[in-house]
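Hi C.,

You asked whether I'd gotten around to modeling the 191-residue construct. I have! Everything is below, sequence then structure, no commentary in between.
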Amino acid sequence: FTYRVTWYDEEVSGTAQTQSRAGSTRGVRWERSVVDRGLQMGPPPTGRLLSIVGGATASIADHPHTVAILAARTADGFSAQYCGGTLVTPRWVVTAAHRVDQRAAAEVDVVAGISDLDAIGASDRRVVETIHVHPDYDGGLVLNDIALLYLAVAVDAAAAEPIPWQAEATAPVSRTPVSLSGWGSTDVLGE
């Protein structure tokens, strides 16, 4: 699925405020942090922030850097898939820290170049050698929610390609429109 978002630049908009304040509850600190980071505001979460819902069906050919993150011990690809990620080099995948922070590398597989989860076979799976969660990740406040997966074997160029802008010398600047891709629902009912 493809979504349009605006990239946040801390140097332009200021830093996130997450420190404790007298009389502040965790929910109030979360709300200030979200507002200060320029994100849309909703009610404070009881667990995770709501997932992105919407978009349209997209071809893996249009997003060859999109990978599926799977539970390694579950054979069926559809049942095993629990998150997505982005191939940033042939051996590195970026994903959400909250999806891998409580897992060992042996519990996670990556599949690249396949959009039909039912078609995933054992030979399509890439073993994750190590998981690197951001050192300042805070699951309660959902801050620094990013992790890198290092694959035991590089993804073959015939299967998938790293994200295109990674090869360029400059990164996107503030307010640059970007696309997101992954697996999910196109409506809130899970259809």
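If it helps when you're writing up: The beta strands are 3-6, 66-71, 81-89, 92-95, 108-112, 125-133, 147-151, 177-180.

Thanks,
B.
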